[in-house]
Amino acid sequence: MQISVTILDTVPVTHNVRHYRLERPKNYGFSPGQATEVSIDKQGWRDRKRPFTFTCLPDAETLEFTIKSYFDHQGVTNQLWSLGAGDRLILRDVWGTIQYRGPGTFIAGGAGVTPFIAILRHLDATGKIAGNRLIVSNQTEKDIILREEFEAMEGLDVLWTVTGDPGSSLLQERIDAGFLERHVKDFGGNFYLCGPDEMVSDLRGLLEDAGADVANVTWER
């Protein structure tokens, strides 16, 4: 299945991230954490598909994606930055990525936090956010996505770390074995991972080495 939908508006999030709000087709449903393949409904771009996770609540009247654009090459995300209200995107079938399995620790690298947005928003809206923790690594403070929103979720424990911003007052540590030893107290719960492939692969091994049950580790595949 594929369907063309109109962009209603775009909203700045950071210097290179935007919310894209779209009309919602009738009976087009998804669960928090699920995604679809998206392409731009323009000549030369319709076959260039990229996976993006829905970041709105599942019962929202409109659809939303939160997308980081990479300006160093002429790809889909760079082209998306030039779009606005009235332009169109092509959506396809919904598929499962990261699904919530119970309270745990969400660990993300940069834009890897986007698959967690709808999950955490839904938990917050339904009063089930307590007992969850969000750890996100970015290069700089200005790269942090939805910092104020996450910090305002009462009951969500949030830890930011930056790796290339010496002037920041935030934690300045890479997420490695030492980081996990210092900042994760319980390895018996659920873990949710998303970020660059190498980071996720490394974290899976580090968590297992630290005593986490591999059955409790969920990552974007």
From TrEMBL:
Superkingdom in the source lineage: Bacteria
Boundaries of every FAD-binding FR-type domain copy: 1-101
Lineage: Bacteria, Pseudomonadati, Pseudomonadota, Alphaproteobacteria, Hyphomicrobiales
A Pfam family of this chain: NAD_binding_1
Protein name per UniProt: Flavodoxin reductase
InterPro entries: FAD-bd_FR_type, FNR_nucleotide-bd, MRET, OxRdtase_FAD/NAD-bd, Riboflavin_synthase-like_b-brl
Gene3D superfamilies documented for this protein: Nucleotide-binding domain of ferredoxin-NADP reductase (FNR) module (3.40.50.80), Translation factors (2.40.30.10)
